[in-house]
Design goal:
This protein is an alpha/beta fold. It has a single domain, classed as Aminopeptidase. An 8-stranded mixed sheet has the order 1-2-4-3-7-12-8-11, with helices on both faces. Strands 5-6 form a two-stranded antiparallel sheet. A two-stranded antiparallel ribbon has the order 9-10. It is globular. The termini are far apart.
Amino acid sequence: MFTRIQAQVLGALGVVVVLGALTLFLVPASEPAPAPVAQPAPEVVDVPEEVPFVTHQVVGTSREGRTIEVYTYGTGTRDILLVGGIHGGYEWNSVLLAYEMMDYFEAHPTAIPADVTVHIVPVLNPDGLAQVVSGEGRFTPDAVRTDVPLGTGRFNAAGVDLNRNFGCKWQPESSWRGTRVSAGTAAFSEPEAAALREYVLAHMPESVVFWHSKAGAVFASECHEGVLPETKTLMQTYADAAGYKPILTFDAYPVTGDAEGWLASIGIPAITVEFHTHESMDWAENLAGVTALLARP
């Protein structure tokens, strides 16, 4: 016999059972879940790679297969080209200055204005340099041979004066201090001169400086149209800062096929910077001269 409480419990259980049955009947167990709302794909943004401050490029090879290299510093749109060692071993100190300038710019990147890129060819005539310097690659003054006559290494391996092999007033023979020298079989016949030509035409620098020795002066360049007005400014700027003597016209002896003259013929101002001796780099003077060029508006 059920008590009142037992009857109430049984009644409540019956209601639960009935409601559960109705729920199973009204809502099938296999009803699919609501479809997820599609989310927009994330936007893909291309992030450009950072342009390196220092780059290195092989732009050609010499007659004997040595590499001709260019090092660049900075990322600006104003290109300035500095060239050492066009006369190889005869002017090995111009190569050392190029190395020193490379080290300086790498250690002091803020020395180059944001709108400037400096290009440095440390040695354009590596075969001539090898005639005077022991070993290959970068060298120090103690690697320079002292048992060779002055003038050794001025020419390339084919015996051509590279600074007579460019396309301005070119002739098969030219002169150096009154001596007849070979200028090659044609303008740009030598791979070293051709390599510099192609690099210049690819970058069209606003100005070019060639380091030589020895005269303690800065010479302007000219071809058939005379000295460009901008070349005069370039010469004076470098000379004033470095303390060298500015010379508008080289008239010591006739010169044909020089690199600076070819640059003038295509509208690029170029100067010849002559150190005081064949051994010194004139570091302070040339750093001041280059710095003044970089600071020009």
